[in-house]
């Protein structure tokens, strides 16, 4: 009997579709509002990965019609200087979204800086007020990566109602808000992490499995319930036997694709959606702050 191969969840295609919709929305609203939406990405230092992410965000902004007010600061920039920049951006009517690119140099307090951002301009969805709105089921800007996962599940018409959902990882960036969004969609949630006993048994029960740990090959076919939906948020760079670098997720893709019903690839699954939901949050802020 031929083995069923999982259907791929294509984040790249959905990201493209949403970006086209956002571009159309901006084209419609801009004459009424009198300006384009604005996003300010603040980066400190010379982290090559961060620089690449920021360039990608700025390219995506340009593609849909969002103005970039990004600033790149030298490594020695002080906490006070950054707080003053954020305060000015909070008051700047041209700016709808503010994002501090992490990680920051060691002498800076990222949490305090994130708290300085106006919650209605917090397009990363990480301010305590926005996380509180999520807990309470109130409207607000949502954390980009889990928000992107929810849009993918919606696009592929994957029902969450009453399903057993397991989230592996409990970070404030992905794991915790992901679990809350799934709970809001009436799934039954388990959060697993490095201290969980019998991880394999926990995962085996999942109708919906979302993993965000950053450990290559953590999830193998034996751990996955046949017919499960597997969303791989993890991303790691590995070197193969030939010395070539490539990106991989937490899931052993080649084995799990023979067990799961749906599976996200890495790259090309969740990654493109994270930047797109950042754009979505910026446009949401733009329309709400302009009362359109």
From TrEMBL:
Catalytic activity, EC: 1.5.1.5, 3.5.4.9
Q: Which GO terms describe its molecular function?
A: methenyltetrahydrofolate cyclohydrolase activity; methylenetetrahydrofolate dehydrogenase (NADP+) activity
Metabolic or biological pathway, per its Swiss-Prot or TrEMBL entry: One-carbon metabolism; tetrahydrofolate interconversion
List residues traversing the bilayer: none
Among the GO biological process terms of this entry, one is: L-histidine biosynthetic process
Q: Which residues bind NADP(+)?
A: 169-171, 235
Q: Which InterPro entries match?
A: Aminoacid_DH-like_N_sf (IPR046346), NAD(P)-bd_dom_sf (IPR036291), THF_DH/CycHdrlase (IPR000672), THF_DH/CycHdrlase_cat_dom (IPR020630), THF_DH/CycHdrlase_CS (IPR020867), THF_DH/CycHdrlase_NAD-bd_dom (IPR020631)
Recorded hits in Pfam families, A to Z, give: THF_DHG_CYH, THF_DHG_CYH_C
Q: Name one GO cellular component term.
A: cytosol
Q: Write out the catalysed reaction.
A: (6R)-5,10-methenyltetrahydrofolate + H2O = (6R)-10-formyltetrahydrofolate + H(+); (6R)-5,10-methylene-5,6,7,8-tetrahydrofolate + NADP(+) = (6R)-5,10-methenyltetrahydrofolate + NADPH
- List the Gene3D superfamilies hit by this protein, alphabetically: Leucine Dehydrogenase, chain A, domain 1, NAD(P)-binding Rossmann-like Domain
Annotated coiled-coil positions are none
Keywords attached to this Swiss-Prot or TrEMBL record, sorted alphabetically, are: Amino-acid biosynthesis, Histidine biosynthesis, Hydrolase, Methionine biosynthesis, Multifunctional enzyme, NADP, One-carbon metabolism, Oxidoreductase, Purine biosynthesis
**What sequence ranges are listed for the domain Tetrahydrofolate dehydrogenase/cyclohydrolase catalytic?**
9-124
Does 4Fe-4S count among this protein's keywords? no
Q: Which family does it belong to?
A: Belongs to the tetrahydrofolate dehydrogenase/cyclohydrolase family.
NCBIfam families linked to this entry:
PRK10792.1, PRK14186.1
What is the stated purpose of this protein?
Catalyzes the oxidation of 5,10-methylenetetrahydrofolate to 5,10-methenyltetrahydrofolate and then the hydrolysis of 5,10-methenyltetrahydrofolate to 10-formyltetrahydrofolate.
PANTHER family xref list: C-1-TETRAHYDROFOLATE SYNTHASE, CYTOPLASMIC, C-1-TETRAHYDROFOLATE SYNTHASE, CYTOPLASMIC-RELATED
Identify this protein by name: Bifunctional protein FolD
Organism of this sequence: Aetokthonos hydrillicola Thurmond2011
Identify the gene encoding this protein: folD
